[in-house]
Amino acid sequence: MADQMTSRRAIEALRSGVPNRDAVTALGCMQPDIETKFRTMLDQVSGSLSAGTGVDGLLVAGEFGSGKSHLLEYLQHVSLSSNFVCSKVVISKETPLYDPRKLFIAAVEGAAVPGRRGQALTEITTKLNFNSPRYAEFYQWVNQGLGKDLNKVFAATLFLFERLKHEHELMNKITRFWAGGKISMSEVKRYLRLCGQGATYKLEKWTPRDIAHDRFTFVSRLMVAAGYTGWVLLIDEVELIGRYSFTQRARSYAELARLMGRFDSRIPGLITVMAITNDFDSAVLEEKNDLEKIPGKLRGRAADGDLLLAGEAEMGMKIIQKERQALRPPDAEDRLATHNAVRDIYTSAYAWNAPDVMDSGATTSTRMREYVKRWITEWDLTRLDPSYKPNISADTLAPSYGEDKNLEIATEEAGGDEGDGE
What we know:
Blueprint: H1 2-16, H2 21-27, H3 32-51, E1 58-62, H4 68-81, E2 84-90, H5 100-109, E3 111-112, H6 120-126, H7 133-143, H8 152-163, H9 168-178, H10 185-194, H11 212-225, E4 230-236, H12 246-259, E5 270-277, H13 280-286, H14 290-301, H15 304-322, E6 325-326, H16 332-350, H17 368-384
Parallel strand pairs: 1-5, 1-6, 2-4, 4-5
Antiparallel strand pairs: 2-3
Helix pairs in contact: 1-2, 1-16, 1-17, 7-11, 8-9, 12-15, 14-15, 16-17
């Protein structure tokens, strides 16, 4: 029964086009070049931590339904089996790429921790051993190493987390803050004074945006201090950038470049893989003329912030244009192997001997999703009515890149003052 339920979960995921762990485990990965590159990136993390550098990110591209989400699900499986914390994030209205704070919160909330099932940051902090060499190195890094450039609130809260570990309410507040929540600066300062450290940490006001990138840096090293190899961030549906307004597209390109490790922004311990549609280059960068219009308009404003954003956005667009790695379309051997695997899963799920439907319908598609959904639909119809002869047709769906104001949400700017906290 357990095998049958696992098979049914896999079939339902494949039927809906949203792969889950069961489906990915059964079907594996048909992108050997990308898998090899990704495993090499994982192997580079330990060395990058020692050197205080990071690992360049990876951008994969494929047409709608070509298996990008399946690939990311598979890479999550690889990450967890290699002792990495792994976060899958889907770009959406609630999680826009141009807002690093919301992206960070989504990454932490969606993080999977090897061998653990609870809330990610809680599980990670419970594994901290204050007497271990890993933690000692982390503490020194936060206070004296490259981490000294972080906002001082991270060093202050780490000090309190260790020193006042029996103050459970405070520990929970600090953990929530590290996970992207708010914290009262007046309370942090009060505890620092109680510990005789009131003058040690110079805390100043900030906005959530000010410390958004610091949070990625701090938490990735926190994970390593807790005994994990690093943090893998998998970001799907990056093509949603194309539907933002001018300014939000510019900021999204800049964030893409930053997460991919440009501008000396590589974060030791963090690996980023993003997925985008393969026609984004022609449909948005060229047809909308973002390659020229965005940097040109920003530089025309001549404000310092716009000049900086122009260069960052330009770098992000060049990454999309020149550095994306295309998914390999399935060949006949891939289709046959996938057909046989899905047929075995379907047979197990319904205790019904699914027939060979590999060549039952003509199609010129290179999208594996279309093949899989056609096979499953044909089996469904035949299983329910053996006398019925299915005749299935398929239409091509293409993503829209028209601007949509509804995708934009106000970015919270409430600051970390002494009254309300961040």
